[in-house]
Amino acid sequence: MHPRRGIRAAGTAADAPLAVLTAVNAAIAAYLGLLTLAGARRSRPAIDGAPVHRFLMLVPAHDEAAVIESTLRALGELRYPRELFDVHVVADNCSDATADIVRSHGWHAHERTAPDEPGKGPALNWLFDHLDATLEFDVAVVVDADTVLDPDFLRAMDRAFADGADVAQGFYSVLEPDGSTAAGVRFAALACRHHLRPLGRNRIGASCGLYGNGMAFRRPVLQRRRWTGHLVEDAEFQMELLLRDGIRVTYVPDARLEAEMPATLEAATSQNERWERGRIELARRYVPELIRRFPTARGRRLAHIDAVADHLVPPLSLVVVLQGVGAVASAVTAVATLRVNRSQKFTRRAILHLGTLAILGAHVVAGLRGVSAPRSVYRSLAQAPSMIAWKVGLWTRALRSKNVVTWQRTKRNTE
């Protein structure tokens, strides 16, 4: 074959897949760019006025004796009238001294033994059912047992519910992000996923998302809807609220809380595999329904579109890879086809991919600036390539695997 014909044939073969990749990357960049612009600026509301809501703090705990004391102390330091909140911990299938530690701090411990029904969702159902029949409260808040809350957490939530929220999510971030490179990179990811995007989703009228920790619900919401034992029961709960009840989750950025994250990739593998498998399963289940219900979702159509986009946009690590592959492949093809005068199309695509990479970079920077990230987090990003490779491999395995992933407690760093 003549060299020019070979180059032309190679360019033709690359045209269709590169066109698809360009379209996918442009759509992802447009979505993230929209949320970045919508969430980059916000006015900081004053936490003022007399508190009006009575809060019930629900803490699910499974063998958390090593870490729960810091959570209990933080709950005791909340700047909120003591008569307007109470703390109840479910020591779920525990084999350690979790319940005793809770009682030694003056809070309520409820011991649940159900080895055939483990997991956070069933434990929360059991605890709520028990307390709903006996206590007076307005809002239930779910807090993990390895969490440190900002002293004004409840003041911020009180303001959000006074403004009309039915379900709210606080800013859930990383405790001690300078403790390891993995924690620093995770902090950066959550600055985008748990802060910047929810701000943008709030502003455009979407549902900001539930992230498992720092979630707050008006009492009637939990009275009519149950948790399941799903791998990502929080994201599933959010979808059920939107589709069945028409409820959008409100993001409350001033309700801050931080939780321990695994200090090594090895320790984080099982947790992240569970999350990614769960999210993939939810996308397969809910995206068709969200699209099917769109014509009748009056007043919530934008929330449906956003939910579809949120399900389909892969983790940030994979987005970086897609954008980079698109830029490199388009540039290489543009250079290779110079001799046959077919490079302009691929050159334009390479420029477009560089633009999408710039949007992605702006998204990350805006997220970090929005949460006043410490310098150590920026330094951790120097190790991002190895983290990206690990995440992409994990996500790919989760996408292909047909094995059942069951809930497992993540080992704490002290263990």
Tell me the span between the first and last alpha carbons.
Answer: 64 Å
Tell me the name of the CATH homologous superfamily of one domain.
Spore Coat Polysaccharide Biosynthesis Protein SpsA, Chain A
Largest sheet: 8 strands, mixed
Structural class call reads: alpha/beta
Order of helices and strands: HEHEHEHEEHEHEHHEHHHHHH
Helical proportion, percent range = 55-70%
Q: If you average the pLDDT, what whole number results?
A: 88
Strand content: 5-15%
Q: What is the CATH C-level name of one domain? A: Alpha Beta
User: What is the count of helical runs?
Assistant: 14
Q: Which fold does the CATH topology of one domain refer to? A: Spore Coat Polysaccharide Biosynthesis Protein SpsA, Chain A
Mind telling me which CATH architecture of one domain this is?
Answer: Alpha-Beta Complex
* Strand line-up across the major sheet: 3-2-1-4-7-6-8-5
Bulk shape: globular
Structural overview:
55% of the residues lie in helices and 12% in strands. By secondary structure, the protein is an alpha/beta fold. The chain has a domain at 55-263: Alpha-Beta Complex (Spore Coat Polysaccharide Biosynthesis Protein SpsA, Chain A). Strand 2, helix 3 and strand 3 form a beta-alpha-beta unit. Helix 1 (3-39) packs across helix 6 and helix 11 runs antiparallel to helix 12. The protein is globular, with a radius of gyration of 23 Å.
